[in-house]
Amino acid sequence: MIPITRQAREVGHCESGKIPDDLNSYSEPVVLRGLVNHWELVKKSLHSDITAAEYLKAFYNGRPTLTYFGEPGLNGHYGYNNNATQLNFKKEKAQIDEVIDLIIAHLDDSAPPSVYIASNIIDSNFPGLRQKNDLDMSFAKLAPNSEAPIPSIWIGNKSIAGCHYDASDNIACAVKGRRRFIMFPPEQIENLYPGPLSPTPGGQAISMVNFHDPDYQKHPKFKQAVEKGIAAELEPGDAIFIPSMWWHQVEGLDKFNILVNYWWSNAERFMGSAMNVLFHAILSLRDKPAHEKAAWKHVFDY
């Protein structure tokens, strides 16, 4: 594992559900200890795996959802094959209750199949769950025409979501199982060696560096990123704030993990996604003659 020595700043033992009013002003990740320890799902999770599974399944409405499936031995490291030509796992629609049962059935296996439900909108599949498992996001003081935060749930056994960035601010809540976060500021992009824009494991380009066994001959500048890295580990009931555009790898450390997160932006919704700017620039400039691209680089840099 890479030697990240700097730990994220902590707000210790938050009053249950009380988010600091000035959180939007934080420019670095911040751990919010105990923020969701009052959630019913957290309490069930601390009781037992079965109790958590049955509680969650009781809210499930039967709608299938996209699920990641990997062979035993993948160890939840969702990414690419050796030459980065295709993903190293399959994506299929599945019943969530059956996915949870599969996780439970393999809890005692030394090499279970990898299974992961990523970024599932809670209200789409678990109506009523938020009644006793939700955050008051009024601290965000959103612009009148901005998108309201929509909580999502992530369910799986051991997993590694490769280092990526999100365009929105984020609060991620560890509900069941421990989570490790390895984070880097936005300016470290060139030292993280981002992979293809498509296909991607989960929507965003990910770092091609294996954080558990980095190849410094192949990725020499990654050493510079390590010097700027920040780490954090969450217990069930803890949460972390990750500012927009910060790179982060997220690892589910236990045999059954559940996370709930909230993305939001204070930008008004008519602004759309800034990723479209990047895509349009690539389409417009990629195949231009080299001297034209060099000239346009000066314009963009300016």
Explain this structure.
- With 302 residues, this protein is α+β, with helices and mostly antiparallel strands.
- Strands 1-2-12-9-14-7-6-3-5 form a 9-stranded mixed beta sheet.
- The protein contains 8 helices and 14 strands.
- The protein is 22% helix and 25% strand.
- The longest helix has 12 residues, at 290-301.
- It folds into 2 domains: 9-271, Jelly Rolls (Sandwich), CATH 2.60.120; 274-302, no CATH class.
Poorly predicted parts: none
Q: What's the CATH topology label of the largest domain?
A: Jelly Rolls
Order of helices and strands: EEHHEEEHEHEEEEHHEEEEHH
Shape: globular
Q: How much helix, percentage-wise, in residues? A: 10-25%
| CATH class label of the largest domain | Mainly Beta
Alpha-beta content class = alpha+beta
Q: How many DSSP E strands?
A: 14
InterPro entries: Cupin_8, JmjC_dom
Organism: Alteromonas mediterranea 615
Pfam families: Cupin_8
Protein name: JmjC domain-containing protein
Blueprint of the fold:
Elements: E1 9-11, E2 30-32, H1 40-47, H2 49-57, E3 65-70, E4 77-78, E5 90-94, H3 96-105, E6 114-121, H4 122-125, E7 150-156, E8 159-164, E9 169-176, E10 179-184, H5 189-192, H6 222-228, E11 230-234, E12 239-242, E13 247-252, E14 257-264, H7 275-285, H8 290-301
Parallel strand pairs: 1-2, 4-8
Antiparallel strand pairs: 2-12, 3-5, 3-6, 6-7, 7-14, 8-13, 9-12, 9-14, 10-11, 10-13
Helix pairs in contact: 1-2, 2-3
